[in-house]
Amino acid sequence: MTKKRIGILTSGGDCAGLNAILRSATHAGCLAGYEIIGIEDGTAGLLTVPVRYRKLTPQMMDTNIMRQGGTILGTTNKGNPFKFPMADGSFKDRSDEIIAAVKGLNIEALIGIGGDGSLAILRKLAQKGGFRLIGIPKTIDNDIGKTENSVGFETAVWTATEALDRLQPTAASHDRVMILEVMGRDAGHIALTAGIAGGADIILIPEIPYSLDAVAKRIADMREKEGRNFVLMIVSEAVKTAEGKILQVEHKGEEKRYGGIGHYLGEHIAAKTGFETRVTVLGHVQRGCPPIPMDRLIACAFGVEAIKLIESGASDRMLAWSKRKVIDVPIKTAIASYQDVDAGGQMVQIARKLGICFGD
Ligand code: F6P
User: Fold this and answer.
1) Ligand 1 centre and the CA of 22: distance in Å?
2) Residue 14 a catalytic site member
3) Does 358 map to a domain?
4) Could you tell me if residue 301 is inside a domain?
5) How confident is the model at residue 201 (pLDDT cuts 50, 70, 90)?
6) Higher pLDDT, 69 or 3
7) Which domain holds residue 94?
8) Is the pLDDT of residue 249 over 60?
9) Strand blocks (E) in 261-341
10) Torsion sign over Cα 350, 205, 282, 231
């Protein structure tokens, strides 16, 4: 008798912990009697003929896999199959090709590991094609609703915190304002969390409007009234200029990405305060590192619970981390409830009580 099969893919930008999910789903799936196949490069692997996939076995998935950043399957964060960019500049709906490919794999269900964008696309495909889908949330941005944590977030925060730890001594040695620009897309979770943990004096996030004058005043006060010779500042990539302009970088043939606010602020703060200012843009360092324990733990738990959900016959559900446990929620609800920073929430208030300035 042929074994029942489960397909798994990683989609969207990579982050720490993806391999840990692949490992845990493979172990739990094989233990439950399934054959696990890993689809390469997200939906891109389903668009090639023949479909690019490989069998995943517990033997391949030793503990070292769990420690590795990136995804052994590869991933993509471009090429929406419903609006696929073709070489001649036109767009084509290639969803039927993907659905046929999924059906051709004879899988009982697909485990899609992705952020809100990827999960929305995979859900649309599953609804149209009538195949079973279980979603696992991953993104350093931590902006998916209904889950306290997405895999990859904790590691990104750890990396940004460590960056602040390293910037502080050099800032103090040179009497400088150090600005750290971090990722997070439209949500300020990385900047807020790492800012508190890493002892930032100023945190700028897209959810809280700021003024350059307020930031400059805080810096002047720290120097003149509090005798501080350095300032640590962390800024989310999506923070706009004081005039409300969105700063983005264009990569040829791709969607625009945020970038540039750190240098914009560096220039203006130096001019306004006279303080020597330096800028560090952390970038993809936040994504490509070994996962810290919390991300490994959540990844292990999500992989195992995804298999349990499939065994139970469930579909269209996303795993979520809530009150130290794994629960499952409708994918639709999770992607519909975007989670950015609550500007009046407890964590922002705590930061304010610690003397952290948000530039407002
Ligand atoms: O969504 C994850 C993320 O790392 C964002 O924080 C960032 O804005 C974007 O992806 C960067 O994308 P890319 O890897 O295409 O440069």
Assistant:
1) 21
2) no
3) no
4) yes
5) very high
6) 69
7) 5-151+291-336
8) yes
9) 276-281, 317-322, 325-330
10) negative
